[in-house]
Specification:
With 443 residues, the protein is α/β, with parallel strands linked by helices. It contains 18 helices and 13 strands. Strand 3 (101-104), helix 5 (110-120) and strand 4 (123-126) form a beta-alpha-beta unit.
Length: 443
């Protein structure tokens, strides 16, 4: 990245309205109740899986869960998401348990959040806010910071009224004394902030576009280089696999969203052709749409890949669900037509019978253990076959053409070589350009 641009970005990141909502979430360990709306047709297992995940997200954001509550409804209540009785009950229990926050397992509309805050005196946040606060914490590079900031601003813009809630409360008494002027001030402040946020959004979008353009130029320069991208649900072991294949030393953590941007390294395959491997941000179910949209610079890596290594934690009995969720996000970003290898990671944690069951279910997948570096050669071989369409070819070359055998030693990869009575028997892989050399000897 040229230096001039770097300075511009720095300026943008400093140009920052500090908003207490995020800072507060990060600073201290907080306690929360979780609330989930059970949709029609949802199974108990789906509900529990989703709540487990929310609890894990909350924990990553530094929030300890004290209780979980569910309500079955055909549709959310328009003004408060949940029904009155349910919220009253929760407010009461939160008071007793001294819980700080109520986390709702979906994205609330700005009005719903405000109404719950106001009517029940509960501090409420939604799933999106939790994910955004994790991304905020984990963003280390300029690219990740810009993208997270954009997602935050887009999320905040329609919610300013909620952020200014403290202002309204402080002025509440004045208002009841007929102080309509104070309300006017709040409105004015919101309008000022709104304008400020809009101009920040424009500036950040411009910076992200520059990053995208820069990457696009780089991509064109390396157009002949094949690209492999590791994708998968968060915590599937993508970075562990990336490190095992490249010695890159990317941060690996038993944490959700440890990686937020993509790292690329050249990889040597048997064919000797240059291949670039990238590690990237993990996916999660119901990934906030602002995040998907604002991570376009990072997700370019995925969109431009020739092959995806779709990595799954095969020790998790919810793996089918994770695979579907990742494929959904891939479809959202237009990467669902890219060939994939399903990589069943953490095979070291599988029981034998379960492994057989999974193998039957996903016959084309490859079991590996990124952590123990097991079966990585098979994975690379398959990746190479898929990228270069290198199938194994069987040949019988007569003894009057041993010059060709010598030549193939230079050009092709020899898997089997057997000097038989009538001919030299070979099993090889060879590039498409060199295939004409052997066409007369193919079995
Ligand atoms: N048992 C076992 N654990 C693994 C294996 N691969 C990764 N892990 C563990 O899984 C956890 C997550 O690994 P990461 O490589 O950070 O996962 P990731 O997919 O990059 O996660 P995010 O970047 O957060 O999306 C770490 O605790 C790893 O040590 C494996 O093959 N076997
Ligand atoms: Mg990672």
């Amino acid at each position: 990245m040229p230096n001039r641009n770097e300075e511009e970005y720095d300026e943008l990141i400093d140009f920052d309205i500090e908003d207490e909502a995020w800072e507060e979430l990060e600073s201290t360990e907080q306690t929360a109740f979780l609330a989930h709306l059970i949709r029609q047709g949802e199974t108990e297992m789906e509900t529990e899986t989703s709540l487990d995940e929310l609890e894990r997200l909350a924990e990553t954001a530094g929030i300890q869960t004290l209780g979980r509550y569910k309500q079955k409804r055909a549709n959310p209540e328009r003004s408060t998401f949940f029904g009155k009785g349910f919220l009253e009950d929760i407010a009461q229990r939160m008071l007793q348990a001294k819980a700080d926050i109520l986390i709702i397992n979906e994205e609330l509309s700005p009005i719903q959040a405000r109404n719950i805050d106001k009517s029940y005196g509960i501090r409420v946040i939604d799933r999106t806010e939790v994910i955004l606060s994790i991304f905020h914490d984990h963003a280390k590079t300029r690219e990740a910071k810009l993208q997270v900031k954009l997602a935050e601003l887009e999320y905040q813009l329609p919610r300013l009224r909620k952020l200014w809630g403290h202002f309204d409360k402080e002025r509440g008494s004045a208002r009841s004394r007929g102080g309509s002027a104070s309300r006017g001030m709040g409105e004015k402040q919101i309008e000022i902030d709104r304008r400020l946020i809009r101009s920040q959004i424009r500036a950040i979008k411009r910076s992200i576009d520059q990053v995208v353009q820069h990457k696009e130029t780089q991509r064109k320069q390396r157009d002949n280089v094949r690209k492999i991208c590791i994708v998968g649900y968060t915590n599937a072991g993508k970075s562990t696999l990336f490190n095992a294949l490249t010695d890159a030393g990317v941060l690996v953590q038993d944490k959700l969203f440890a990686t937020l941007d993509s790292t690329s390294r050249q990889l040597k395959l048997d064919t000797g052709a240059p291949v670039v491997l990238s590690d990237t941000v993990g996916f999660i179910s119901r990934l906030p749409h602002h995040l998907v949209a604002s991570f376009k610079a990072t997700l370019m890596e995925v969109q431009n890949a020739d092959l995806l290594l779709h990595t799954v934690d095969s020790g998790d009995d919810r793996m089918d669900y994770y695979i579907d969720q990742v494929n959904d996000v891939l479809a959202q970003i237009g990467a669902d037509k890219i060939p994939q290898i399903l990589v069943l990671n953490k095979a070291d944690t599988l029981e034998k019978t379960f492994r057989l069951f999974v193998a039957k279910r996903y016959p084309d997948a490859i079991f590996i253990s990124a952590k123990l570096q097991e079966n990585l050669d098979d994975l690379l071989q398959k990746a190479q076959d898929m990228i270069f369409h290198t199938e194994i070819i069987t040949l019988h070359i007569p003894y009057d053409n041993t010059a060709l055998v010598a030549k193939l030693h230079e050009l092709a990869k020899i898997h089997v070589e057997d000097y038989r009575d009538d001919a030299v028997y070979l099993e090889i892989t060879i590039s498409a350009e060199d295939r004409h050399l052997i066409k007369d000897y193919i079995e």
